Amino acid sequence: MVYVKWVFLGTFWVLVAAFFHYTLPQHDIARITDTYEKRVDFGENSLFWSSPDIGNATTVANRDVFFIQSFRGNGKPMIYRNEDTGWGWPPYFKFDTSNLQAEAADLISKKSAVNAQWVVVRHYGWRNEFMSIYPNAISVWAVDNPDVRIIPWMNIIILTIFAALVWGITVRWKRFRRNRVDPFVDEYTDGWG
Amino acid sequence: MMQLARLLIFGFLFLSLVYVVVSLWSRSVRAAKLRSEWIGSGQPGDKESFVQGGLKEYDGSIRRKLILLVYIVPVAIVGTIIYMTNFM
After folding, report:
1. What is the ipTM score, two decimals?
2. I need a surface site. Which of A94, A114, A129, B85 has the fewest CB within 10 A?
């Protein structure tokens, strides 16, 4: 029985970690090499696409999506999608997709460039080649060199609050169990050995 | 528009729930404090009327109105995020 408990708790916390890893902002240092748009027919991966530009029809089966193509500081390619999150989840409230595409296109810098233009891409989400899912870029800004250090203040604040919440609930649950549940169970199982 | 309406409606319902719970909790904490204050100050007069009087004072207090921050803070946070994401 003790294994059931640990498997259950382990699964729960892995899901929580995955949820935060997908939803919280992350920063990549990259070199944008191209921006384009592509028609996407949403299938099994439809969960990992966001909403159409705010104000447009929301019930369409397919639409054009902006993409930003880049190479990261470690030389590996990374493709971002660039979609509105609108008023929905995750709560980035991003409406400026077209502006972001213009900024990204302005910062293009190929391998052959004399001075590479590095940028920071703030994004959320995952890249997965097997399901064709892409992280959603939130904003880009230029940096002078690829070694800049970015402190994720937002993540620190959110995870600290979450940890405090979990701790508070755990303490109260344990107290409740000790004071109310355990005496009750003891009373009825008295003498069971 | 549907997305915004959904956010506003469910957000309002959720925050109202939080508001009600916090209000009841704050009031009960205040009542408990008043009861121990009554004992601490040598049990002056009737306990119930002492607690009722204290709660009446609490009803008009700034502390109670501060619970309205339950609505104001999330709206301010959303406004800040919108500004930071789209206009910075």
Report:
1. 0.77
2. A114
